[in-house]
Amino acid sequence: MIPGTFDYHRPTTVESAVALLLQLGEDARPLAGGHSLIPLMKTRLSAPEHLVDLAAIEGLRRLEHVGDHVVIGAMTTQHAVINSTLLTDLVPILRETALVIADPQIRYKGTIGGNCANGDPGNDMPALMQCLGASYQLTGTGGHREVSARDFYLGAYETALAPGEILTEIRIPVPPAGHGYGYEKLKRKVGDYATAAAAVVITMAAGTCTSASIGLTNVSETPLWAAEAGRILVGSTLDAATVNAAVAAAEAITNPASDMRGPAEYRTKMAGIMLRRALERARVRATV
Prior knowledge:
It is built from twelve helices and 14 strands. With 288 residues, it is an alpha+beta fold. It has helices at 14-24, 37-42, 78-83, 85-90, 92-98, 104-109, 112-117, 125-132, 149-152, 227-233, 240-252, 264-285, and strands spanning 7-9, 28-31, 50-53, 63-66, 69-73, 135-140, 143-148, 153-155, 158-159, 166-173, 180-186, 196-205, 208-217, 224-225. It folds into three domains: 7-53, Uridine Diphospho-n-acetylenolpyruvylglucosamine Reductase, domain 2 (2-Layer Sandwich); 60-173, Uridine Diphospho-n-acetylenolpyruvylglucosamine Reductase, domain 3, CATH 3.30.465.10; 181-283, CO dehydrogenase flavoprotein, C-terminal domain (Enolase-like, domain 1, 2-Layer Sandwich), CATH 3.30.390. α2 links the parallel β2 and β3. Keywords: FAD, Flavoprotein, Oxidoreductase.
């Protein structure tokens, strides 16, 4: 349970952090909150020779409403997300999701950028970001580029980040006023990763669903955006037959591993149940 030896670097600008990561190459890892990386280092499943700590970089904790988006700096902690009046008012599902991540001690240090950038399919924020249509600002030696959360995840711990790039900012379109939302997570105990989880954001008008977006957590090698399931719901009254069809479409795209959280078939069915619960909560919350 003791990490291997490594050199510690603490840059004060994004530019110097990017330069360090590029110079040190595959032997270096950026450090945000550390709650994914450090446990891997303790078990020697990851043994970087260099850690580049992002904590001293100014500007990575911004939290602003800019036009029709909210902009969240990558080093913003889950605790800050939970306690942000701005986010609670505009994108309340962020708070709901952050509250079921790990435990309070981890949420004080764990960052939203680290949760999104790591590529761990068990992390809660990536599927939510896909559900919300968020994009990530990636910063490297060539400047900034923007990548949709729906295109960012390529495999387990594999992302669209190029060598030397850092996820520096998350941009989330503000959902319409009166939208319904829900994040439902099944876990074995407090602090655990999800056996399965589902994020839902919908809008309703005159009793009819006018838009629907669904994200699924920890039921594949990547987070999943269940686009077809969302399309099935649009134009319906969220009647039982339509919900059943949407759940079946969502379950069909899952490919969970059989592990300590249960066999693959069980986890697929739990994803469907979490989707039903999240959808019902979203329906109740939506202003019709």
